[in-house]
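Case 306 in the screening queue. Each case pairs one protein sequence with one candidate compound; here the compound is phosphoric acid mono(formamide)ester. For every case the pipeline is the same: read the inputs, emit a complex structure as tokens, and attach any notable structural observations.

Predict complex for case 306.
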Amino acid sequence: MKHIISPLDLSIEELNDLLALATDISKQPERYSSVCKGKKLATLFYEPSTRTRLSFEAAMLNLGGSVLGFSDSASSSVSKGESVADTIRVISCYADICAMRHPKEGAPMVAAQFSRIPVINAGDGGHNHPTQTLTDLLTIKELKGSLSGLTIGLCGDLKFGRTVHSLINAMVRYPDNRFILISPEELKIPDYLRQEVLIANNITFKEVQQLEPVMPELDLLYMTRVQKERFFNEEDYIRLRDSFILDSEKMTHARKDMLVLHPLPRVNEISVEVDNDPRAVYFQQAQYGVYIRMALIMTLLGLEVK
Ligand code: CP
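Case 306 output:
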């Protein structure tokens, strides 16, 4: 039995198979409409979510399966003090596979140790968000045609943004990618990522504090929200929240084929006027999130279409 706790839990071969399956699902979804008949997905969300929880649920429903779970830990026995370990032992009696989001880093890994069903990390604190990364990889592969040889700009809250951490971990596995890390000084990537992932793998990267000057270099611009919920004091959040706002004027400095991605939710960091720019693909990205989660559920349950 396999769990997905980190984007590195899949080998490159497994990742490529998953992406190929997701592409096939996107082309002929009806072919997959009953592959999970009789199977149940539990969504255990201890933190708010729109896309991740609902795209997991849509994915299982699209595959002909059923869903159960909670979207607010206050409405579950967690509010009475039940541990993650006990919760997953019980959920293993009710469902075939589980997606868990938790504010504590490592909580889905703990769940996996006590689970009799595959556990998928749907975001743990500021740590990892592997299924967002799978979504990002599918979006890039489909719309850019390759996962290699790209200059990737990551902009915003690179300290707390778990989607950024997972995406860097994933993209360093493909050749000739370089990174431009655009953030205020206080929101730079954690040092372990700089040392153990970028420097240790001889990846070309630079860290800058201005977006406009680097726009012409980018193949991809991955915008992120400043993560209000991870700040210790509101003053710092207010001071930093509007550090970068992508607008139509800034887009004039970008290449004609640069893509703008964002894991969403967006707050102020992308002006709504950018939404109509054909290079803004963040809503398509959300659609790809359903296809890749369908592929992941099928793969972890060992199911194939006949
Ligand atoms: N991208 C993402 O994780 O969105 P949600 O927080 O709405 O799930």
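Case 306 observations:
- The first strand starts at residue 40 and ends at 45.
- The domain at 130-285 is CATH 3.40.50.1370 (Rossmann fold).
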